[in-house]
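HUMAN: Mind making up another protein with tokenized structure?

ASSISTANT:
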Amino acid sequence: MKEQAIKNAHNEEQKAAVKDVGRQQLRSWGVLIERDGKDYPSNAYAILTGCGGLHVATQCGVFKGTTKEVFVDRREYTSPIWEQIEEAFQFVLRNIHLGATIVGIYRQDVYEIPPDAIRELIINAAVHRSYLDHGNIQVAVYDNRLEITSPGKLPMGQTLERMKEGYSQIRNEALAYAFSYMNLIEHWGSGIPRIIGKVKAAGLREPEFIGGEVDLRINIYRGQIDDASGDNNSDKVPDSAGTVPDSANMMPDNADKVPDTIGRLPDNEQERKIYQYVLENGFITTSMVAELLEVKQRRARAILQDMVEGNYLRKKGAARRTIYVNNMEGR
């Protein structure tokens, strides 16, 4: 787990903070259970290691059209759960469109669905599913959508609306502690609102949440594809991708000049930090800014408002669903 924690760390400081996990830590998480002076593996141990006789799998498939009638490709992953997450994530990336846009004078590859949102959805399915249910997590790529299904009904007191607002009820605390240590999840309850924000910031419709009584299904619609076409052409560049000019790969005549994109960075250090976060993650919220800068919410709102007025950010949504995204207009 330590190796994964270091691999998933966001920066050198976070890497340096990763410590070894001892038996006492595993006991406190619930990964090991102590009885009569002996340690016994829990179900969480079996899920995390892939050992112990507990069958846990993630099924992935690509389908032609918008139903499950015709398989194009299928895979089933049965490795330790954290490896299943990465394998399913890479499976999706191989089977969705990769386009291109131009930022300043540079070409930038862009997936039609934000990769961070895909990865977080798969992680969410793994940590919140019911392992008492013998079903498997299913990751399905259709011509018009990505669909992720996790077995088990919602915990008592949880609803789809409350979940979208960030209310979290951890079903598998031992896994949640281990995932947090491995830097797979950050703050409990922040995942779903963050996913919604990233998807909307990419210009796609808000993810669709279905079920909750037997299983939970979440759909992200692939906005670049005509729903009625029934054509899953993975070689097609999304229509919304920026056109790459013939000169994109040529060295500009004024190669010694600083690119225009640098000129768009805010002068203020705090604003630069926020802007860089938005460029990397697609959006930011007031709470995220307060945490990022270690300031109070009131100060975070004031900084964001300054960045909106300076045309660096654009405000989307209202009240608790407000997010701030990059604003290239007029710059």
In short: The chain has two domains: 19-97+110-221, 256-326. Confidence is low (pLDDT under 50) at residues 225-263. Residues 19-97+110-221 form a domain with the Heat Shock Protein 90 fold (CATH 3.30.565.60).
